[in-house]
Amino acid sequence: MKIHHIAIICSDYEVSKKFYIEVIGLKIIREVYREERKSYKLDLAIGEHYVIELFSFPDPPQRPSRPESCGLRHLAFSVENVSVKREELIEKGLICEDIRIDEYTGKEFFFTQDPDQLPLEFYEM
């Protein structure tokens, strides 16, 4: 039917929380602390759509992300204007790759990364 959510375990909860809210622009749905797990769970949305569960866990293992390794390759967000979004993110201190053109759709896109180096794509809609 559709993707319900994407779960991300971060290494520094406060840094990632700030990143996804203040830099990317997601909205908080709810935040809970689960004492038994020593874990925060932050539900985030874009507009009215439930999108990401951000988790903290004590000492999560590292996951290699480059070069191409098995697992989630990247998380992609659709945007109206790729150039505007790229400039907004650069102004907020992110390093963004150059804008590319999808050879099959002709749409523009670029990549950056979150605080744990999860590749993030911004794709023109």
UniProtKB/TrEMBL annotation:
- Which sequence ranges form a coiled-coil region, renumbered to this chain? none
Keyword annotations: Lyase, Metal-binding
Tell me which positions the record assigns to the signal sequence.
Answer: none
Looking up SUPFAM superfamilies in the UniProt record yields:
Glyoxalase/Bleomycin resistance protein/Dihydroxybiphenyl dioxygenase
Q: Does the keyword Metal-binding apply?
A: yes
Can you tell which superkingdom this protein's organism belongs to? Bacteria
What residue stretches are annotated with the VOC domain? Answer: 2-125
Q: Which Pfam families match?
A: Glyoxalase (PF00903)
Keyword Nucleus annotated: no
Which GO molecular function terms does the record list? lyase activity; metal ion binding
Name of protein? Putative lyase
- This protein's species is Chryseobacterium carnipullorum
Classification of source organism: Bacteria, Pseudomonadati, Bacteroidota, Flavobacteriia, Flavobacteriales
